[in-house]
Amino acid sequence: MYPFDFTKVCDTQGALEAGRRGGRYIAGGTTLVDLMRETVERPQTLVDISALPLHEVTVTERGGLRIGALVRMAEAAAHPQVRALYPVISQALELSASAQLRNMATIGGNIMQRTRCTYFRDVTAACNKREPGSGCAASQGFNRAHAILGTSDQCVATHPSDVAVAFAALEARVHLLGSDGARSVAFADFLLRPGSTPNREQALRQGELITSVEIPAHPRPLKSGYLKVRDRQSYEFALTSAAVALHLRGGVIHEAKVAAGGVGTVPWRLPAVERHLIGERPSQALWTQAAERAAHGARPLEHNRFKIELLKRTVERQLRIVGGTP
């Protein structure tokens, strides 16, 4: 680990000033500190923001939910309003990492975490995300865990967050604070596909601070849930996952929100699946037909072609779990 300066701030103004000077924000530190140990990240200054007043979960006036950036993953998962309104969020969080990490890691840090691609974390390997222009060792290497959707010639790494998949499905917004004031960004626009600039992963401006993630109100009743498929039952990242939220009225699907994880360079919304569900009545045939559309546009690599079929089966299974069958 390289030498660095450390400072602790107690208010947002102090945090923004430190951020403008190039400081890197840290709270739980469960990702950044690991990357520093591996010399992938070499920040000159760490800014501890854990004392900022961003620890609340609140229900908005319209019935949505706002989760402060510094709410711990375990706290958010156990919060009664999160569990009641959006169980898909609680389930995604509970299926993330170990209990010890969930007790430390924050919501803001979770969506900011960087890929677990082994080539990204190996400083001797070519990685455009870590060192632009150096190449992508994963594209010709062992790429079983890598992405099949949203890839480019520059990068094929997956985004590792589980709860980000739920946020993508629920059309969340990320609230930010910077030197130009407050702004909010649709979650779909906050995490960036690699394109030709895989080193730029979020739509953050210099020194901006995540203050909260807001989930808008959705029609009620809303059934939702998260399914994660992985090589082992615990402490493992997803090969595929599915976040599903369905609003049924009179036995007909009026709203459908579906996103997948473990297969995209960002949490991957599945609009073709959603469109096939709207206006239909739940049935096993419907779930199967909708799930067939889950892998549209996939570009599999040498070792991860199996993810196409696995994604379809994961989406079908979670549609059946959430929507039921007559």
Overall 3D form: globular
The N- to C-terminal Cα distance equals 57 Å
Hey, roughly how much beta strand do the residues contain? 15-25%
Strand order of the largest sheet: 4-5-8-6-7
Structural domains: how many: 3
Major sheet attributes: 5 strands, antiparallel
Number of strands: 12
CATH architecture of the largest domain: 2-Layer Sandwich
**Secondary structure tally, helices:** 14
Radius of gyration: 20 Å
Describe the structure in your own words.
With 326 residues, the chain is α+β, with helices and mostly antiparallel strands. The protein folds into three domains: 1-53, Uridine Diphospho-n-acetylenolpyruvylglucosamine Reductase, domain 2 (2-Layer Sandwich), CATH 3.30.43; 57-112 and 160-215, Uridine Diphospho-n-acetylenolpyruvylglucosamine Reductase, domain 3, CATH 3.30.465.10; 223-259 and 266-323, Enolase-like, domain 1 (2-Layer Sandwich), CATH 3.30.390. Helices cover 30% and strands 20% of the residues. A five-stranded antiparallel β-sheet has the order 4-5-8-6-7. A four-stranded antiparallel β-sheet has the order 9-10-11-12, with helices on both faces. Helix 12 (271-277) packs antiparallel against helix 13 (284-291). The longest helix is centred in the last third of the chain and has 18 residues, at 306-323. The protein is globular, with a radius of gyration of 20 Å.
TL;DR?
The protein is of the alpha+beta class. Helix content is about 30%, strand content about 20%. The chain folds into three domains: about 1-55, Uridine Diphospho-n-acetylenolpyruvylglucosamine Reductase, domain 2; about 55-110 and about 160-215, Uridine Diphospho-n-acetylenolpyruvylglucosamine Reductase, domain 3 (2-Layer Sandwich), CATH 3.30.465; about 225-260 and about 265-325, Enolase-like, domain 1, CATH 3.30.390.50.
